[in-house]
Amino acid sequence: MARGTLMVPGAFNALVARAVAKAGFPAVYISGGATANVAGYPDIGLITLTEMTRTIREIADASALPVIADADTGYGEVECCVRTVIEYERAGAAALHIEDQVFPKRCGHLDGKDLIPASSMAEKVDAMAKHRLSKDFVIIARTDARHVESFDDAIRRANLYREAGADCIFPEGLQSEDEFARFAKGSPGPLLANMTEFGKTPDITAQRFQELGYQIVIYPLSMMRLAMGHVARGLEALKRDGSVRGVLGEMQTRKELYELLGYTPGKQWNLLDRG
What is the extent of the structural domain holding 24? Predict the structure, then answer.
């Protein structure tokens, strides 16, 4: 963050995380929504703390990158949030974000959300900041107030969360470059932008986010959406043609997979050999 705005792709499993590292990105993101989706669930808070920490551990081990992990609403009240920050850090995360929605939460780019009182969220942030194992672990506070209360309320909440101990603020669902600029002016300090597709936020480049004052840009579902688009087209081809011959050119080859895994047939494999 000190060197410039970080582009942080989401990885929905450890193999994708290896690809993120191989592509040269400085960090990797784990979306609660993506983790739920690959388990066959919608993003409504059904994934447990245990499931998320297992995913964090696998992705941290496979990529050796700093991991930013979605902690949804903290898996409960303040005591649960304390356990969450400790378990996430032990699993290998470098940062987490927690949001101010009422449980069960909804995707941040959907309407019909409800928020907990700002003071209750500040209490969660304060407890997490005080109980993290390392002062270098980054606490990111997300507010969904833009579409529940108002833009100004989102800024007020963000500043309250900063006072409570948040290292970075994540304003969800902003709708224009102007809103991102106004938010950065109204809540000075480290900021995270969510560049998700098909939502309320227009496509904005990482360079532009840097100009607007944002230190982190996450791409939570981009790789999953690309992958699932190809899966759907491959299944259509298989059913239509009785073969995948027509889509072989779109596949990762066996050689490319082994290279990504750092695996050479006949030689002993090491988890720490990342190619």
Answer: 6-223
